[in-house]
Every structure is written in C-alpha cells, then in structure tokens.
# Entry
Amino acid sequence: MQFKKPLAGGVALAALTAPVSVALAGHSPKLDHDAALRTRLGGRIVGIGLRRAAHDHAVGDYVHAERALARLRGRHAPHGLRAHAARLSTAQLLRREHRLRHEARSLRAASASSTSSVAVPAALQAIAACESGGDPHAIGGGGAYRGKYQFSYATWAAVGGTGDPAAAPVAEQDRRAAMLYAQEGPSQWPVCGR
# Structure
C-alpha cells in the first residue's frame, strides 16, 4: 500500500496498486461495485477518496460526448446536462458515454461515405485540403471556423446553410462551398485560396 500526501483536512488517501484479481481477495465488496470504473482506471481498485474524482471525470466525458453528438445532429445539447449527469452513477455514465460515442462514430461514417452530388472543382479540392485536410468535421480558429471548408457560421448562413457546418453532410458542404466560390471566388479563403 502506498500513501499519498494528505489532502485538505489532513485526510490521507491510499491507492491500492495490486491487480484487481489479487486486490479483491480479503477486501470489502464495497470497493468492487463497478467493473467499468476499474477498467477506466487501468484495472486497479482505488481508495474511496479517489472514487469521487473518477465520477467527476466520467461526468465530464459524458457531457463532452453528449455535446459532440448534438453538434453532429446540428442541435444544441440540453440545458442542465452536467447537473443531470452528476446524479447518475459512474457505471451509468460510462455506459451512456459509450453509446453516445458509438452513435457519433456512426453519424460521422455515414456523413463521410455519402457521395457528393456536386462536381468539386480542383480549386475547391485544394482549398479543402489546405483548410482542413479534407476533414468535414474539422473545427479551427477556436471554434469559429468549421467543416471541410472552414466556414464561419455567418458565411455558412449567407449561402443558405443552417446549423453547424461541421455537422452537415459532405455533399452539402461541397455544394455550399461551390456556391460561395461561384459568388466570391477564392477571396473567402485568404490563405488557402491563393
């Protein structure tokens, strides 16, 4: 057993570093309530004081996954999401986060595999490669520029787009970029449009 520095209030926490199979022998079943928690923490059982930190970490991961999926759908995440998540157990959070991430991967794959109904000119292909590496879900400039062509929300709306440009299907991003290129030329991409 290895003791850590005392935390606020003088409480010392111990992290049991034995593998799970060895640590379970002779320990309270209360420590063994959540196999998913052990998996998340590298297969080790931790002292009770560290459980709260693991739960808080799971809350953050769940909220992040929920918001990412909402962006992919072109929506906003529900209000009070963090407070709702804090009331769930760690196991529930991990299961829900896994489901959300799987759904997000499926949406991204469906979006990426959809074929473009717009013939993308070589100039636009070069712009997309320069701006985002061709990634239709790229987000740059601290969140200000989004999608394959790094649209701002204002520019995206100006060519008829709604929602998040990075959540739009590739075909729609190509179509809106072609419209913008036809209207403005490469001037909308000052660095990559040269």
Summary: Residues 3-32 have pLDDT under 50 and may be disordered.
